UniProtKB/TrEMBL annotation:
Span of domain HTH lysR-type: 1-59
Coiled coil is among the record's keywords: no
CDD domains: PBP2_CrgA_like
Keyword set, alphabetical order: DNA-binding, Repressor, Transcription, Transcription regulation
Organism, as annotated: Chania multitudinisentens RB-25
Protein name as annotated: HTH lysR-type domain-containing protein
Keyword Transmembrane attributed: no
Amino acid sequence: MDQLSAMRTLVRVIESGSFTAVAREIGASQPTISKQIRGLEQRLGTPLLTRSTRHVAPTAEGLLYYQECRAILQALDDVELRIGAAEGQLSGMLRVGVSSAFGRLEILPYLAEFLAKHPKLNIELLMSDDIADLLQSGIDIAFRFGHSLPEGLVARKLGNLASSLFASKEYLARHGSPQTPEQLTTHHCITYQNATVRQRYWQLQLHDEVFTVPISGQLSCNSSEGLRAAVLGHLGISFAQPWLFKAELAEGQVQILLPDYHLPVMPLHAVYLPERRGNLRIGALMAHLEQCWQRNGTLALID
């Protein structure tokens, strides 16, 4: 039995709570995962997991072994990274969590240069608008929007993303362009909502005056990809960030509305588990993306 491989498998089974999820994650069969765990249990002479039809949980001995395995594997990974970094090369796997639209438009276009610099490094980009649990999903670093962040994570603020109101040229040709915040109430407003957020109003500011505008419309979306598609489908006006329509703004297909008014900025954070602090893969990717975003104007960085 490859003990290091079995230890890695046990760690991920306990963190994810699922044999099936780990099998899918590493590209192995579920019987292979079960065999590795049984091998560890036979070696140690004690059960490490309790199994039910829906969940897997560690025994007391399993929790102790998991904690030690995790520390050993992290130390081994750190040593290998330092050796590779001394030669100017990063290696191994980096699992990155990001929303679908931001991953497609603002991360994927900049990975070719990074991966060419580190040919021994593999990146698994997990693109979803659901907020994944980093420990359970095995994510090394995630990029998250907004002011509310989960407790227990290291969060590094990368900057603020400016917000504006957007509509397609065709929609505005049909319905006219609002000239004041109050006129938004007569337009089709595309709102964002998910399990924890539901837009009921938009807030705009001109100098010292704040306008709180109740919004309504026939369409709401739970993803930035949905908002983008709805605007490009001429369905109405959306509150979003310019990166979502960068190409269409340059081509004149989409326009910014009420440009003299300021809307709340959207903070962007890089988040990771405390034990990933100082990880060279994470640090290198963040530095690369920040440089790309600054060069291309994605972020309006603040101190």
